[in-house]
């Protein structure tokens, strides 16, 4: 399993410390970017992304919880982001266009969806998007409880990927921890985000390792 710890629950007064721990141990660094409109919260913006990018050696995975996400693809690419995801709730019928735009810039692109959006809505992007970001909590806040129905959603998405023979990856985000990661791996997840379970732990490196081994 690839692990992309989220910095949303980092210690922002000592961000460098958390970035280094994640960078040394994980596979990707997950950056939760919110606009207060698509989701009821605001996180951080470009100066913070730039600071993180200046010391990161692992790929940066920007999760855009914003309206009109395509506005920011170019800027994120310039800052050194290599994976970008946007929400289907924000893109709707513009989804295929946004995927093409991100690909033109050389980004890996993912389509994200909240737990109340039917998983079959994104089936047509399997084989087009590089990954589907299945939310296992409602986007907006770290530290929420994992929604168990996500396991079935991942299984049916995986079945569609297999049916099409596509290379699209499944990333799962929200409330992931060492006790539910195994079920996610069995259902077909390829990447998990870990926020509070990782940076809230006494030994983040050990939690990252436990998630990777699932
Ligand atoms: C929620 C974010 C997640 C989240 C992960 O809007 O997209 O990345 O912060 O944190 P935990 O693992 O604490 O749910
Ligand atoms: Zn996220």
What would you say this structure looks like, in words?
The protein is α/β, with parallel strands linked by helices and 214 residues long. It binds D-xylitol-5-phosphate and zinc ion. Zinc ion binds next to strand 2. The site of D-xylitol-5-phosphate (DX5) has 22 residues, from strand 2, strand 8 and helix 8.
The CATH class: Alpha Beta
Spatial sequence of strands, sheet with the most strands? 1-8-7-6-5-4-3-2
Whole-angstrom Rg: 16 Å
**What's the pLDDT, averaged over the residues?**
98
Shape from CA axes? globular
CATH superfamily: Aldolase class I
Bound molecules: D-xylitol-5-phosphate, zinc ion
**DSSP helical segment count:** 9
Assign a percent range to the helix content. Answer: 25-40%
Order of helices and strands: EHEHEHEHHEEHEHEHH
- Which structural category do the helix and sheet elements fall into? alpha/beta
What is the rounded distance between the termini? 6 Å
Low-pLDDT ranges: none
CATH structural fold name: TIM Barrel
Please name the CATH architecture: Alpha-Beta Barrel
Q: Can you summarize the main beta sheet?
A: 8 strands, parallel
Count of strand segments: 8
Counted up, domains total 1
Sheet-strand content, in percent, reads 15-25%
